[in-house]
Amino acid sequence: MRSLPADCGPVLGIDIGGTAVKAAYCQAEGVLVAISSEYAKPDREQLAAAVRQAVAGLGPVHPVSVGLCVPGRKSADGESIELAVNLPGLEGYPFATLLEDAGVDVCNPTVTSDAVAATIDVAAETSGERVLGIALGTGVGMALIEAGRPISIGKKSIGHLGQIDVGPCSPEPVFGPDCGRNSLEGYIGVPALRKRFGAEFAQRLKWLSDEDPALVALCRAIRICLAIYEPDRVVLLGGLGLAMRPLEERIRRGVADGLTSVAPPSWKIGFGTDRFHAARGACRLAVSATGMAV
User: Fold this and answer.
1) Average pLDDT of the chain to the nearest whole number
2) 4 vs 56: CA distance, rounded Å
3) Cβ distance 22 to 52 under 8 Å?
4) 233: nearest Cα among 260, 255, 202, 205
5) Which run of H or E residues covers position 279?
6) What is the DSSP letter of 267?
7) Cα–Cα distance measured from residue 195 to residue 289, given in angstroms and rounded to the nearest whole number
8) Which range among 75-79, 210-214, 278-282 shows the weakest confidence by mean pLDDT?
9) Which end of the chain is more exposed for a tag (fewer CB within 10 A), N or C?
């Protein structure tokens, strides 16, 4: 997304991630992006401060609508998050109140997940493909986009990929932050990788062997997705997705090994280009909420 139609007012996209907030401001003149300082398990005050910092990094903004990416399971009324395993400070914090506390003066934001928004941004650059995005960060999310729209089950997303059981991928039992045995996040979420490799875990990823539990778990998850959703393209997004680009051929090989014959024979794998896909995708959704197409 490089700019907006001249007759569309500016929009703001905010992506609240597990370690930082990313923001994008889209207007006819182009797109600005900014990021907050990193945090760990922030409370409400710290979350609002991070949103305020990211938005301030864009300079003066006057959006007509806002798209907001948040992790976790929405409450029954859709006004907040009731369960955010990796960001508990967000739980029960009304979206409107969060934006107000952060100084963002727009009501009724368009709310989605980072996986949905990021995949929408990537899929917009493809030609009619069914695109499955896997957002790899503190948590692991998923979205499936076809004809520019996310596929869902009623009002529920299909994106809790991080909680699926990928089977034992290591000699020792692994539990994800949701307490699920053998869950994908227990192998390849940021907390799991930091525990194994320390603060420089992202730089260590390119040295993973084909038999490394993190890589085995990811390949198993992609095989499951190919069998169930039959996407034309699988895209790895988020900070970890970017860091795994050097592993492209090994991931492709690991997925192909034992892949079911019902998976699309010509499936492709791709990677995000930066950390702001979700923030830009939130802008796209905010534009759609105004009735315009991008």
Assistant:
1) 89
2) 21
3) no
4) 255
5) helix 277-289
6) -
7) 41
8) 75-79
9) C
